Amino acid sequence: MRIGEVADESRGKWGKPLEGLRVLAVEQMQALPYATQLMTHLGAEVVKIEPPVVGESGRAGDQPALRDGDGRQVGATYLRSNLNKKSVCLDLKCAQGQALFKRLVSHFDLVAENFKPGTLERFGLGYEDLAKISPRLIYVSVSGFGNLDPSPYRNWPAYAPVAEAMGGFFEPHRRGADRPPPVLVAGSLGDLGTGLFAVIGILAALRHRDRTGLGQYVDVAMYDSMIALSDMVPFMWSMGGYPVPASVGTLGIIANFKAKDGYFVTAVLREHQFQKLTELLGTPEWISDPRFATREGWCAQIESQVRPALEAWARDKTKLEAARELCERGIAAGPCNRAEDLYADPHVALRKMLIEVPRPGFEESQGAEQPMLVVGNPIKMSRLAEGPVANFPRLGEHTDTILSNELGLSENELAELHREGVI
To answer: Among residues 191, 219, 224, 400, which one is catalytic?
Structure first.
């Protein structure tokens, strides 16, 4: 799917479920920007408030980066999560900027922020301050450890790997006695997972407002979100399911296996699946072998028995072919995809899960530059169009338009605010 493209006209006639919803986002980096970008796919209008001159911190990322239409270097963190948005530069550290922000609030349904707890309160822009202006306002905070309760970690900085580690993702992996738990970067799960919970909270608050007419404060912590996503870790421990450190693999055969062009993963978790695997591999003796009598036994034999047999079977197959044949026999499997695999995958194309974004400075007709690939909308609905998608905004691209249209500021007033560095 490309920028500006509408994928399905028949679905498009219904509009989008969040059309008319207006979001004022004081956001940076990844978790909240991902949440608000997802909301734009569903029809919301997002106006992004950024500091003048430098913009939000995600723009300052290093490699990979590119030069935008204004010649500014823009980092990957920003480029991944800001399609469809409008950018307004406003200095919230000064009284004039704070006053302009308060005037904007009544024109929006939602204020969303992901700064260190207490930052916007110090500027007089916390929930209690803004709810006096607009009682219907929904105010969303995304942070490492929350705002509404006095967490002992409240003032800790948090990046995705920190929240993932604290949530229990890393420690329960098998390793040598003296080896540290692996830090397994999985596409900023700590950020994106938290963003998804933020969207859920927003939608719930909107439903509550429909019933009561009142807004409220939605408080989402990265640590909480990772605990929710790693639910097996505390639950299985509490049930005596496996010791810590251990591995999810102790529940059965869950591992990567080599094919001729890469690896595929398979998950054999039940006895009937194990029997089908033995039939496929021609190893019926495993069924009566006491070493394979339990699911823990299957796991213990992965390296000595299962891997040699399964990789010998897959030696002349691609990872996709191996996974397909396993699935056809009722054994869950899938290829371990690289980025180029995703780009070529017919499912990904069919579901419009990658959006091709042209790089500034290159005309599409040149064909010399690979477009950027930003993830699409994973929420599919029978009455929701895919697209059109707008490119990420240049820094402050919409400042004058928004302040003029929403607040009625004149050209002279805007020029004075520019001279003073407020906008």
So the answer is: 191
